[in-house]
């Protein structure tokens, strides 16, 4: 790339290298500080509502930060060439295929503001003289601003290339319109997607945390489609690491077989919406599944299969993580840190309508054993189950999904 300003003096170059080496040890914290505000600044609701795309955007923020810091360790104060790797290219293709056009300029503007303030703090703390501070800030400002300009240009070029090579854009764009609530007739949707709409639908989201395991997603999709005898199945490639599915039937589709399929695929996770009829059901079930996926990712949960109907209350409780942590601690007290077997016994007991015999059958344990565990769990809990079973059950469910939520 063409160099647009003079090479810095050796002392200034060494100062920049040292500062970048220090900040490289803080990349995770810096990425977290930058990612949320830049995501909002990109002003794209479809991006914000998809947890898989949000994860990819977080990865993009981290890779851009690391690229600038490592380049300035190797060549301090010089122009930095953006790196658009395979994962970034796949992310751009996913955005284009779904008609999502984030405001990259707005995102970079916010990222520069946050990153530059952190850079200023490091420079002021470590530059030994006023003259060196001025030189370091002058050179690094040129490098950082030019890097933002070059990165936005690279992203636009990648978007154009993806648009030219996207053969399935029309179908995916139509799905996106339906899912977002745009007016649509069932006849038009059925004709364009070749999927029956005037039936019961269940929306599913499949995803993997590892982009290298994307092939496992397609294997699960293929197995689901082959098992969907007598049903319609619609599949959309939502991103490199996620797939959207809809299953429809004349009655509510039975997902027990699907759950077994997911259980056999170690690297794949699934979220399922509540069933619904027609276009509205198609849309609402999909939104449920997206909400369940977002909750699992937000809480860092290892749960593999999540039905939104089972966790809707927990989704609302945990949108504020600190508030959820307080709720669990103030409800359960010492029970929150006790043996998980005790918590599971009390939760199952409540879910079985306070019937010890049914709880024992569900837990594959002797009735007396369950009684002892329930009694001990209730002793440890600050709020007693007989006083407020709803709060106790909700707090136990939060811990069941996110066992580490009470950790510092």
UniProtKB/TrEMBL annotation:
Homology family: Belongs to the CdaR family.
Lineage summary: Bacteria, Bacillati, Actinomycetota, Actinomycetes, Mycobacteriales
Protein name as it appears in the record: PucR family transcriptional regulator
Pfam families registered for this protein in UniProt: GGDEF_2 (PF17853), HTH_30 (PF13556)
PucR C-terminal helix-turn-helix domain boundaries: 342-395
Residue ranges annotated for the CdaR GGDEF-like domain, each copy included: 191-294
Record-linked Gene3D superfamilies: PucR C-terminal helix-turn-helix domain (1.10.10.2840)
Domain of life of the native organism: Bacteria
Residues annotated as transmembrane: none
């Amino acid at each position: 790339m063409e160099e647009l300003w003079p090479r810095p003096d050796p002392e200034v170059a060494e100062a920049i290298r040292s500062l970048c080496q220090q900040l490289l040890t803080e990349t995770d914290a810096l990425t977290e500080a930058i990612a949320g505000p830049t995501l909002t600044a990109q002003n794209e609701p479809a991006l914000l509502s998809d947890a898989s795309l949000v994860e990819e955007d977080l990865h993009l923020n981290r890779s851009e930060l690391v690229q600038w810091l490592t380049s300035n360790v190797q060549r301090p104060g010089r122009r930095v060439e953006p790196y658009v790797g395979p994962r970034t290219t796949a992310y751009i293709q996913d955005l284009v295929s779904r008609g999502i056009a984030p405001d990259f300029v707005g995102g970079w503007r916010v990222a520069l503001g946050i990153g530059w303030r952190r850079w200023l703090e490091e420079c002021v703390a470590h530059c030994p003289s006023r003259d060196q501070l001025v030189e370091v800030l002058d050179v690094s400002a040129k490098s950082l601003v030019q890097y933002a300009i070059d990165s936005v240009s690279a992203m636009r070029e990648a978007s154009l290339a993806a648009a030219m090579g996207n053969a399935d854009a029309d179908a995916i764009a139509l799905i996106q319109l339906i899912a977002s609530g745009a007016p649509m007739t069932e006849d038009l949707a059925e004709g364009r997607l070749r999927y029956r709409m005037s039936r019961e639908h269940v929306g599913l989201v499949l995803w993997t945390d590892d982009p290298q395991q994307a092939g496992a997603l397609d294997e699960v999709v293929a197995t689901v489609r082959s098992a969907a005898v007598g049903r319609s199945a619609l599949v959309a490639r939502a991103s490199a690491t996620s797939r959207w599915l809809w299953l429809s039937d004349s009655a509510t589709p039975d997902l027990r077989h699907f759950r077994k399929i997911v259980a056999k695929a170690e690297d794949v996770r699934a979220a399922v919406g509540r069933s619904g009829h027609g276009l509205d059901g198609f849309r609402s079930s999909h939104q449920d599944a997206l909400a369940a996926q977002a909750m699992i990712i937000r809480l860092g949960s290892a749960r593999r299969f999540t039905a939104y109907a089972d966790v809707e209350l927990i989704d609302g409780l945990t949108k504020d993580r600190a508030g959820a942590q307080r709720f669990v601690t103030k409800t359960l007290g010492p029970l929150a840190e006790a043996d998980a077997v005790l918590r599971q016994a009390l939760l199952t007991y409540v879910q079985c309508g306070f019937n010890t015999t049914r709880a024992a059958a569900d837990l594959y344990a002797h009735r007396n054993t369950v009684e002892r565990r329930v009694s001990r769990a209730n002793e440890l809990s600050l709020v007693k189950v007989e006083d407020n079973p709803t709060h106790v059950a909700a707090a136990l469910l939060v811990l069941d999904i996110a066992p580490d939520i009470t950790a510092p």
